[in-house]
Write a structure and sequence with these properties.
This protein is of the alpha+beta class and 351 residues long. The strands form four sheets. Strands 1, 2, 3, 4, 5, 6, 7 and 8 form an eight-stranded mixed β-sheet that branches.
Length: 351
């Protein structure tokens, strides 16, 4: 029996959200648009000495990052007085490896409009000296903790989420692009930390972002194809995804990746929205796609399990704990719920 045959067609009417729109509807703006919360000052940061001037203003705030961890107090990032922090850290073991300009707050955010924020990249070995660091620096709340983005993303405000994602992305790039790819010379950060220049050949190098498509595949009967990797008895299921290759359009990547991973032929696809995922440097480009195929064959490498779901089957499987789907933080969940036509209830929602 095929995977498609094992799941009976949906016998109930598709869920229709309160908006009155049919499930898997299409419109000019499909997934919610998350507006920018920071003005990154891409022109202003080109001025030599710009970061130093911002620090000297006395009005800038500083986010601190060591490895992939930041200081968090409750549901908020800890933002310290940048000038004072700089003075405290100068000539200490905690002196930042780099100070990067993150931007200024736009109106309507948690910070006063125009508040400038910089990122202090602390030494990697700092993580084992956290308590000593906290005792050395004034202004750190008593209950502050060091946490990675995944640990706190569900509770952070939109502004703090944007700052954490931006800081992680630029920090990851600096950590992995320290030398010139042309001649091997160590590069020098410039433009507020957004460019690295080779002092030997003068070449400039910019932050890298790797585009990846992520797709909901809908069969001829309206059912959704989800997949997962790892052990065959694992419960996690999500949308299918893969990196875009050089010389390939996004739509071509959708067709190729779905064909490679589950042996399904895509007949049409449409872009729905995107999400930055800087771990290490991905930009997830969300699509929905259709197919006339009713069977899926996992490649056994990236995808070990594939399964078709009607809307009722998916909701029942999630509530029963039979499967676990992507968290609400992810574009994968947004894509799945776009197909579903509303919010999918998790087990925790009914506990």
């Amino acid at each position: 029996m095929s995977l498609a045959e094992s799941a009976a067609p949906n016998s109930r009417a598709p869920h229709v959200p309160e908006t009155g729109l049919a499930a898997n509807h299409l419109m000019d703006s499909v997934l919610p648009v998350r507006p920018a919360l920071m003005d990154r000052g891409s022109a202003a940061r080109l001025r030599p000495g710009m970061v130093q001037d911002v620090m000297a203003s006395g009005n800038a705030r500083a986010m601190v990052l060591s490895g992939r961890q930041a200081l968090v107090d409750g549901n908020s990032l800890v933002l310290l007085d940048a000038a004072e922090l700089g003075r405290h850290l100068r000539d200490t073991p905690y002196s930042p490896e780099q100070v990067i300009y993150l931007g200024s707050a736009l109106p309507g955010t948690d910070l006063a409009a125009g508040t400038e924020v910089v990122l202090f990249l602390l030494p990697q070995q700092f993580e084992v000296q956290a308590e000593e660091f906290e005792a050395h620096i004034a202004g750190i709340p008593e209950g502050a903790l060091w946490a990675g983005f995944r640990d706190v993303a569900a509770t952070l405000t939109p502004m703090d989420t944007a700052l954490f994602v931006e800081a992680s992305a630029i920090a990851n790039w600096h950590a992995t692009h320290t030398h010139c790819p042309r001649c091997g010379t160590a590069t020098v950060p410039e433009a507020g930390g957004w460019v690295r220049r080779c002092p030997s050949d003068g070449s400039e190098h910019y932050p890298r972002t790797d585009p990846a498509i992520i797709v909901t595949v809908v069969g001829p009967d309206g059912r959704l194809l989800l997949g997962g990797g790892g052990p065959l008895d694992a419960r996690n299921y999500s949308t299918l995804a893969g990196f875009v290759e050089p010389g390939e359009s996004l739509e071509q990547a959708v067709v190729r990746e779905i064909g490679e991973e589950v042996g399904v032929r895509v007949t049409a696809c449409q872009y729905l929205g995107s999400q930055s995922w800087p771990f290490p440097a991905s930009l997830m480009l969300g699509f929905t796609a259709t197919t006339e195929d009713t069977e899926a064959t996992p490649d056994g490498v990236e995808v070990t399990r594939a399964r078709w779901f009607s809307r009722d089957e998916l909701q029942d499987a999630v509530l029963s704990g039979e499967i676990v789907i992507s968290s609400r933080l992810s574009i994968a969940r947004s894509l799945i719920e776009h197909w579903y036509g509303g919010v999918i209830q998790d087990r925790a929602d009914t506990a």
